[in-house]
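for the writeup, i need someone to sanity check this before i put it in the appendix. the sequnce is what the collaborator sent (i think, or maybe the updated version? ugh). structure was predicted straight from it, no edits. if anything looks off just tell me and ill rerun, i have time this weekend
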Amino acid sequence: MTGSRRGFVATSVGGGLAGLASVSGAEPKSAEKKVDRRVLGRTGAEVSIYGLGLGSAFWKPMAGNPEGARKILERALEFGINYWDTAHSYKGSEELVGPVLEQRRSEVFMVSKSSTKTYDDFMFELEGSLKRLRTDYLDLYHMHNWQPEKGDTSPKAREGAWKAAVKAKKQGMIKHYGVTGHSGPDILMECIKAFDPDALLTTFPANRPDNGRYEDELLALAVERNMGVIAMKSVRHVRNSDENPTELMRYAMSLPGVSTTIIGTGEVNHVEANARLATSFNSFDSKQRTDFSGKVAMSIPTGLPQPWDLPGYDDGMLA
């Protein structure tokens, strides 16, 4: 492994949307204008406001195509997209990322996750992630996908995993640890109070489900604690609707306290379009957010189940 335990190197940041019009067949350019960046809370790291979601939107089309994966990842770096998000459970994703990360380690804020509950299982998955990603440290490692319906009824359910995260941080295997989930804000707020994590990854759809509590309570608590906040699922819940994905992602990226918004893709042209959208980002102001949220809620009622609430949903699915 070539990645030494250096402090994270701040690079660029940006936010954009998969599925936009793109420049197809463009040759890589070394002088692309870099996407915007923000500080990821108490970590102090500067991360791209558009982050790469390396779940199934990436690994499914790239399975068996390491050269295609390399092109996507290297093109992202040309735009300064340094926030890369994967997980132990994202089948084959870490193996696709590892060869590029090994060569470009100082340019990437690398994130992975484990949904295990015990100390030993958490350490086992972390060590596996390090091996597959070909590095000896991760910038952020999450206690992943808290689900009360699957036994995560209180922070005690994963106390062993938390102790492993604390030890791994002390040993330099990870720089920071966080929590993720989309099964309601309550369990995540309990985890924040119990574990004082460095970062939070959760969903901030524009239709503000759960009476807006993800934003009004959960996000507010994370900001009060100076946590790094990462938005996900900004477009997932409206797939096959008439809503404009560009504006949906813009909404998430405009929320005060959100540092980066991750979007999954398996196409270079999507990365290019997303990056250009994220450059010199034009944020919604408070009134624009309110007006846009109200419009989206009219077409996507908050009372309907979100895709991630339906039977058979796998968190490795599209961001």
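The chain is about 35% helix and 15% strand. The mean pLDDT is 86.
thx in advance!!
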